[in-house]
């Protein structure tokens, strides 16, 4: 590890830039500036409400905000990725949905984002009571380090007389919820003709009568938390997907419904007869990717390129064991019982993977996805996903996936290659992490915007909850055409086919979970779909002009006070680098130790995205001393997608902050 890896607070000081945006939320209408916060320690949290990592950071910061409420002010700087996220009404709903109890600056033009040189969601910038920047941090897992830094700043500025204790500028907004609050996913219960909905904002499940309005019962106390037991006592934390097990299997295992308890990072089981809740999988600790669980070389062996050599990283270990209660999961968002696999399939949004859970043996496995964020098809062990959030199974057993951050619909299918069964991933609609829009027509040109739900229709097509376009879209595999069934909805997050009218000679209906209106709506399937073309877009983040090479990449990391780098088994830092397109990166890719790397880019490629993952491990202990036995250890990780253009006069250095102190 080189000396440039770690950098302590510098002798010079940089004053924080102005907080500039369209409006402020959670301030009672007051427009704040940095001068209003003088005397407080300020954490600027650059976030966007589509980003699962940003949601993790919101939860990490809550205890810190409560502990230091009289000296610390968190300011959420909302810097949108998608066009819909720039809508102020949608932002206000997100602030309520995620229980944000601090001021939020609406930064739709990324003005403050650029002023503070943010490059990734989430980014945290710490400003001291005198208005000077003291730290840049990227990614998740910084709570412990922030805690020690805040305590250090409190002591320093209390001694100087520059710390002002007292209430901060937060003013709560009025709730817009009713019986439901930002519902997520929906399940039909055929035996009773009722529907079970994840009442995400109320941290419970609600069983609704067929009218979709009358509450038959609730499961869960409505208190955010984690507790097994009777329906009246059990606790969830933002439950999302719900899946019904086959009747015979339910009798065998003793529960009927599997719940994706997203913020608890657990799978829960519910017995419908009693409402009893149990935990099936997950220890409550958020799962981080194991970068060692990949090999770089191998044969792609997919249905299209049998035997072709691939440089794509792929999983080498997919079986995670049967001790399911002691395994870590990461923001499970939807669940589905697969008739082909005879197990529960999980959209593991936090690690960009598809997991499986066997209710009989409790075995947990990775079905698809390396954990790298992006869009890559082929063999399931080499595929890339990005915050998969919705699952559905069609009549053939193919699993359809709403892959939200790539604004795409993916397929997980089962084929035979060289006499062996293989799971394959392909993308019928969608092109990549930064491509979105509202366009119907041929699937190659069609665009979605952050879809969260998908369901199979009776005619073999699929309906898509195109969340940020406020629409339900349809994809027909037979014609490869995309059309629009409904629009004008408020963030639809799930869609379900209601077959109830068929028994009386009627037509199937659609039930849509309209999240931001806190309701479920039943609508007819249109006889003729709309054809919409409002264009295709890309996320407009500033690109970084880079020289073809060599480019010196440095990721700054300083262990928090009271911690030291865990070098007992060698260098505890790691970089993983790839590019889209692959031709952009001539050398410097792959995974190796250290936080510095020399990159050579292709002038012919012209532009693209560098995918950079940095990790560092530290443990409690003082620099220069030994790490005590049984010391608590901490893993820091961040993924960046850096848009670059290759130019002759471009930069020859690229510096990123995993945990940089100024």
What would your notes on this structure say?
The protein contains 5 helices and 49 strands. With 662 residues, the protein is mainly beta. Strands 1, 2, 3, 4, 5, 6, 7, 41, 44, 46 and 49 form an 11-stranded mixed beta sheet that branches. Strands 40, 42, 43, 45, 47 and 48 form a 6-stranded mixed beta sheet that branches. The longest helix is centred in the first third of the chain and has 18 residues. The chain starts with 13 loop residues before the first strand and ends with a strand.
Short description:
This protein has 662 residues and is mainly beta. The chain is built from 5 helices and 49 strands.
Termini, distance in Å? 20 Å
Number of helices: 5
Roughly how much helix do the residues carry, as a percent range?
under 10%
Task: Report the portion of residues in β strands.
Answer: 35-45%
* Main sheet makeup: 11 strands, mixed
Low-confidence stretches: 1-11, 291-310
Which class best fits the helix and strand makeup? mainly beta
Q: Using DSSP, what is the number of strands?
A: 49
Reconstruct the topology from this structure.
Blueprint: E1 14-15, E2 23-25, E3 41-47, H1 52-67, E4 72-78, H2 88-97, E5 104-106, H3 111-115, E6 123-127, E7 132-138, H4 143-160, E8 186-189, E9 194-199, E10 204-208, E11 215-219, E12 239-244, H5 247-253, E13 257-261, E14 266-270, E15 277-281, E16 294-295, E17 298-299, E18 309-310, E19 314-315, E20 319-321, E21 332-338, E22 343-348, E23 353-357, E24 364-368, E25 378-379, E26 388-393, E27 399-403, E28 408-417, E29 420-429, E30 435-439, E31 441-442, E32 453-456, E33 462-466, E34 471-476, E35 481-487, E36 492-498, E37 509-514, E38 519-524, E39 533-538, E40 544-546, E41 551-557, E42 563-565, E43 573-580, E44 585-587, E45 590-593, E46 596-601, E47 607-620, E48 633-646, E49 653-661
Parallel strand pairs: 3-4, 4-5, 40-48, 41-49
Antiparallel strand pairs: 1-7, 2-5, 3-6, 6-7, 7-49, 8-9, 9-10, 10-11, 12-13, 13-14, 14-15, 16-19, 17-18, 20-24, 21-22, 22-23, 23-24, 25-29, 26-27, 27-28, 28-29, 30-39, 31-35, 32-33, 33-34, 34-35, 36-37, 37-38, 41-46, 42-47, 43-45, 43-47, 44-46, 47-48
């Amino acid at each position: 590890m080189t000396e440039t890896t770690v950098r302590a607070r510098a002798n010079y000081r940089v004053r924080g830039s102005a907080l500039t945006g369209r409006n402020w939320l959670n301030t009672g209408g007051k427009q704040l500036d940095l001068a209003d916060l003088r005397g407080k320690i300020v954490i600027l949290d650059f976030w966007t409400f589509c980003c699962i990592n940003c949601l993790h950071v919101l939860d990490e910061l809550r205890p810190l905000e409560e502990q230091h409420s009289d000296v610390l002010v968190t300011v959420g700087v909302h810097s949108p990725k998608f066009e819909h996220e720039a809508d102020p009404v949608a932002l206000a709903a997100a602030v309520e949905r995620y229980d944000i109890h601090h001021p939020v600056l609406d930064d739709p033009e990324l003005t403050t984002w650029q002023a503070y040189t943010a490059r990734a969601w989430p980014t945290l910038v710490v400003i001291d009571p005198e208005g000077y920047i003291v730290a840049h941090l990227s990614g998740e897992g910084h709570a412990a380090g922030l805690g020690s830094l805040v305590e250090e700043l409190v002591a320093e500025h209390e001694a100087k007389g520059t710390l002002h204790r007292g209430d901060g500028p937060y003013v709560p907004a009025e709730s817009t919820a009713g019986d439901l609050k930002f519902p997520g996913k929906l399940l039909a219960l055929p035996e009773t003709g009722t529907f079970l909905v994840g009442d995400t904002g109320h941290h419970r499940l609600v069983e609704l009568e067929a009218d979709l309005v009358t509450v038959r019962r609730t499961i869960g106390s409505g208190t955010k938390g984690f507790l097994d037991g009777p329906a009246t006592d059990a606790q969830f934390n933002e439950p999302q997907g719900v899946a019904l097990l086959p009747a015979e299997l339910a009798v065998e295992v003793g529960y009927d419904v599997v719940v994706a308890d997203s913020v608890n990072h657990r799978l829960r089981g519910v017995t419908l007869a009693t409402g009893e809740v149990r935990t099936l999988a997950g220890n409550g600790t958020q799962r981080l990717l194991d970068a060692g669980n990949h090999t770089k070389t191998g044969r792609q062996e997919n249905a299209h390129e049998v035997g072709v050599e691939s440089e794509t990283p792929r999983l080498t270990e997919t079986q995670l064991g049967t001790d399911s209660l002691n395994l870590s999961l990461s923001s499970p968002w939807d669940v589905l019982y697969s008739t082909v696999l005879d197990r529960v399939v999980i959209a593991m949004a936090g690690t960009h993977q598809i997991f499986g859970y066997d209710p009989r043996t409790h075995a947990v496995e990775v079905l698809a996805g390396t954990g790298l964020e992006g869009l890559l098809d082929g063999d399931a062990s080499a595929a890339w996903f990005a915050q998969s959030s919705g699952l559905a199974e069609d009549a053939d057993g193919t699993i359809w996936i709403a892959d939200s951050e790539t604004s795409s619909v993916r397929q997980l299918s089962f084929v035979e290659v060289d006499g062996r069964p293989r799971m394959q991933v392909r993308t019928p609609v969608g092109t990549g992490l930064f491509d979105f829009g509202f366009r119907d027509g041929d699937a190659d040109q069609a665009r979605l915007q952050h879809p969260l739900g998908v369901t199979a229709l009776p005619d073999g097509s699929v309906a898509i909850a195109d969340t940020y376009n406020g629409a339900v879209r349809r994809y027909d595999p037979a014609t490869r055409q995309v059309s629009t069934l409904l629009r004008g909805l408020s963030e639809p997050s799930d869609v379900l086919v209601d077959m109830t009218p068929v028994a009386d000679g009627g037509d199937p209906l659609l039930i849509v979970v309209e999240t931001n209106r806190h309701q479920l709506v039943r609508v007819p399937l249109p006889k003729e779909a709309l054809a919409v073309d409002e264009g295709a877009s890309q996320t407009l983040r500033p690109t970084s002009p880079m020289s073809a090479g060599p480019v010196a990449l440095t990721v700054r990391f300083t262990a928090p006070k009271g911690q030291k780098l865990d070098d007992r088994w060698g260098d505890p830092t790691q970089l993983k680098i790839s590019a889209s397109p692959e031709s952009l990166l001539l050398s410097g890719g792959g995974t190796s130790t250290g936080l510095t790397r020399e990159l050579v880019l292709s002038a012919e490629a012209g532009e693209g995205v560098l995918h950079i993952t940095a990790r560092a491990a530290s443990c409690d202990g003082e620099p220069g001393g030994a790490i005590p036995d049984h010391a608590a250890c901490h893993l820091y990780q961040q993924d960046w997608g850096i848009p670059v253009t290759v130019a002759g006069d471009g930069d020859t250095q690229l510096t990123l902050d995993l945990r940089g102190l100024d």
